[in-house]
Amino acid sequence: MALAGQKARPGQAHRRPQLGDGGKCAGLLGKFARYFEVEPRYVPLTADRYVIGTDEALQLVNENTIGVVGILGSTYTGEYEPIAELNDALMEMNERTGWDVPIHVDGASGGFVAPFNRPDLLWDFRLPLVRSINASGHKYGLVYPGVGWVIWRHEADLPAELVFHVNYLGGDQPTFNLNFSRGAGQVLAQYYNFLRLGREGYVAVIEGLEATAAYLRRAIEETGHFEVLSKPRTVPLVCFRLQGPRRHYNVFDIAAHLRQRGWIVPAYTLAPDAQDVAVLRVVVKENFSRDMADLLVGDLSRTVALLDQAKPARLETAPARPRAGKGPASSPPRESRQRAHPRGTHGVC
Ligand SMILES: Cc1ncc(COP(=O)(O)O)c(C=O)c1O
């Protein structure tokens, strides 16, 4: 979580800070902060809180704050941040101080999940302070990469000077874009899915993904080696860490070995101050079946058994298990003998 504020320009007093997010999302919000000259302020996680803390966030808010960002579906664990709680606390603070600090919801993943798995959860424009929301069409919007959405509460929230009007396409055409001409295929694909699936279809898809995620979660827990950190009825993913006595290997070794078996399962550390927590994460999408979950958990168990037996020095050269059959789980080992950088991630989100 982060708080950001506009950088002081020469000759200017310090201007308005803004609240955003942290860690991986620091990269995302950091881009915004750099381009728009705002100062990001991050709410640190703790060893057992992996989302924004409302009290901690409010401590970073001041008269310069231009907004607080709540994430609906943490990149790290899929957990929904307490947007309604943040809304109530900020409303109280705004009233007490006379400030006007709104909320932006980063619904990159959850924007296309919560309406279907938690219709009663308050996180959107039903909350008075939510001013804008973004969501990625290419995640649970079920469209291929390249399309994302942002919506504002009021037309007036989108500065009119950022919207350009052209008439040469045969009528007034407002355009709000950094570049101009772009293919509309992704927008059409999204529109097609809306029409083809409808709310009922999206509910069915998300319920299916949740069932697969729950199945995978159980299977991973049953190995006895892992603690699952992700929660049910959030973003359908399974985020887990090693549990039990200290081992001579870590989740980065597991990710590297899984890679040799054809799986890309990102291993990464959580954002500060929970950077000592290292996890693996499997994002469950429509093409991830229960059969694949079984294959993955089988490979996970074999990997752990192999690492348990391996001497630390041999970790990087352990052979991949030869497999028969087709599909991602059975792909032959490729180039990946390299160990992931202990701070790095080779996954996508
Ligand atoms: C919380 C969060 N916000 C924003 C993004 C970026 O979304 P997009 O890929 O649509 O640009 C991601 C994706 O990693 C994310 O996890």
What does this protein look like?
This protein is α+β, with helices and mostly antiparallel strands and 349 residues long. The protein folds into two domains: 2-153 and 183-188, Type I PLP-dependent aspartate aminotransferase-like (Major domain) (Aspartate Aminotransferase, domain 2, 3-Layer(aba) Sandwich), CATH 3.40.640.10; 199-330, Aspartate Aminotransferase, domain 1, CATH 3.90.1150. The chain contains seven helices and 13 strands. The protein has helices at residues 24-35, 54-59, 83-97, 114-117, 185-222, 251-260, 290-309; strands at residues 2-6, 17-20, 38-42, 68-71, 103-106, 130-136, 148-152, 164-166, 173-175, 226-228, 237-242, 267-269, 278-283. A four-stranded mixed β-sheet has the order 4-5-6-7, with helices on one face. A four-stranded antiparallel β-sheet has the order 10-11-13-12. Strands 2-1-3 form a three-stranded antiparallel β-sheet, with helices on one face. Helix 5 (185-222) packs across helix 7. The protein is globular, with a radius of gyration of 22 Å. Mean pLDDT is 85; it is low at 4-14 and 317-349. The chain binds pyridoxal-5'-phosphate (PLP). Pyridoxal-5'-phosphate binds next to helix 1.
